[in-house]
Design goal:
Radius of gyration: 22 Å
Strand content: 5-15%
Shape: globular
Number of domains: 2
Number of strands: 10
Largest sheet: 6 strands, parallel
CATH class of the largest domain: Alpha Beta
Number of helices: 20
Strand order of the largest sheet: 3-10-7-6-4-5
Mean pLDDT: 89
Length: about 450
């Protein structure tokens, strides 16, 4: 187990290490993103690195494409119909004679990063292809990341919306066999975000990016919680970097609604900064927790059942309110009592599997297999909860209230009632109980399940 770093990073240390801190006024907003690239030895004892070569965010950044690809001769350009319309022709022009192939996905509704989309991109690669350039945001980014990694190629991304935090992360979030799976891939060599283009993105995508950042209130709390309960590796400096991105962004809602170009640039920098934080630790822990598990639940079940779901970041923002309500319910209780134990029985796998098959239908076997391998349902954590309840209580207490989070949502034009009406009471209850089963990550969803939902005196099976 890696040693846990207990010392908090000061604002001065954070600035020295990351080149960023909370701005003292509205004019002091620009970050030096490129100073965050490369490798550095951290106080936690680990070497953190982000292998990206360059980040360009700002007005006119699109003009950097030609310079960025100057060493490549056979380039595949990939986009969907909407993102190609945003700036695809301009990128194509800058690629010039280096453009080997062009792929523009045609799809009704959302493009899904699944087996069919992967096959379509791989079919456009040749033995001479030396670079993939993606024009788009979340799904195009994940497809380019996944396919380029499989092919042993670098990729660049020209962002068309400040919609998610995966631009600089190594993880590719895919839908494979109807399950949400994050594959370890690699970061883009170059990221280009022209704020003149980003500010024209559909408002839903700007709201989604803001919502993805807002979700860090939840995921950072989950990371601390798992440190207390499981002794999970925790880096205060990476935690501080993500928190810095959140502090820079949380009050931007009204300006984002007006498509203020500076505000959109700050949001994009925050999204990239969080991606760099993920690259530093090699996984999505600094940026994804219980709120993302709920979001993945709504997306996966929506695709399985042909039901509506929100854009990822918007679901994340709404789900952050749900997870905070769980924390507040747990905080309202006295320390967990001894209760019944399962010493004379074991977890009722049969009943649980029936529920998983009801909820996840054709994707159920993958979920069941994951939890069987983890064995977390056969682990009684209540002794740890009783022993460490004061620490757990302090961590849960750090998160902002659900009411405060809804204030942020309202500031960017999001209405939590729409979330409740879209999914309904039954689906929300299923999400709280079963979203955790999609991942191998401990969050407040497990704490809530163990203390509120687990049948502690279930029958032997």
């Amino acid at each position: 187990m890696r040693e846990i770093q207990e010392n908090f990073t000061t604002e001065e240390d954070s600035e020295k290490i990351y080149g960023c801190r909370e701005p003292e006024n509205q004019e002091e907003t620009k970050m030096d993103m490129n100073s965050m690239l490369g490798s550095r030895t951290c106080g936690c004892g680990e070497i953190h690195s982000c292998a990206m070569k360059a980040v360009y965010i700002g007005p006119g950044a699109l003009e950097k494409v030609r310079q960025a690809v100057k060493d490549y001769r056979r380039i595949l350009l990939a986009a969907d119909q909407n993102t190609y319309g945003a700036c695809g022709e301009a990128v194509k022009e800058q690629l010039g004679e280096s453009l080997e192939n062009l792929l523009v996905y045609e799809s009704e509704g959302y493009l899904v990063p699944n087996e069919e989309a992967v096959a379509a991109m791989e079919a456009r690669l040749t033995e001479k292809t030396d670079l993939i350039v993606g024009v788009g945001s979340g799904v195009i980014q994940d497809l380019c990341k996944y396919v380029s990694h499989r092919a042993g190629l670098p990729y660049h991304i020209v962002a068309t919306a400040p919609s998610m935090d995966g631009y600089a992360s190594a993880g590719a979030a895919m839908i494979m066999e109807s399950r949400k799976v994050t594959y370890q891939a690699h970061v883009p060599e170059v990221l280009i975000g022209d704020t003149e283009i980003l500010r024209k993105a559909p408002m839903e995508m700007i709201q989604a990016g803001y919502g993805d950042i807002l979700g860090k209130f939840s995921c950072l709390n989950d990371w601390k919680l798992s440190r207390v309960v499981n002794g999970e590796y925790f880096c205060q400096e990476v935690y501080g970097l993500t928190l810095d991105m959140l502090q820079r962004t949380k009050d931007l809602g009204p300006r984002l609604l007006k498509r203020d170009e500076e505000a959109v640039g700050i949001l994009m920098e925050a999204l990239v900064g969080v991606g760099i934080a993920m690259a530093y630790v090699g996984n999505s822990r600094p940026a994804s927790g219980s709120e993302h598990h709920l979001s993945h639940f709504f997306e996966v079940t929506g695709l399985l059942n042909g039901e509506p779901y929100f854009a990822h970041g918007i679901d994340v923002a709404f789900s952050s309110v749900c997870t905070q309500r769980l924390r507040e319910e747990l905080l309202a209780d006295t320390p967990p009592a001894s209760g019944q134990t399962e010493e004379d029985g074991c977890f009722d796998w049969k009943s649980w599997e029936q529920d998983i098959r009801r909820v996840y239908t054709k994707a159920a076997e993958g979920v069941i297999g994951l939890q069987r391998r983890l064995g977390w349902y056969e682990t009684d954590r209540r002794g740890v909860y009783r022993e460490k309840w004061e620490e757990i209580y302090r961590v849960l207490k750090e998160a902002p209230s659900a009411e405060e989070l809804m204030g942020y949502l309202n500031s960017v034009g999001l209405d939590f009632q729409q979330f409740e009406q879209t999914y309904g009471e039954k689906k929300l209850a299923d999400a709280i109980k079963y979203a955790k089963d999609l991942k191998d990550r401990y969050t407040v969803l497990w704490l809530y399940y163990d203390l509120k939902l687990r049948p502690h005196n279930g029958p032997a099976v």
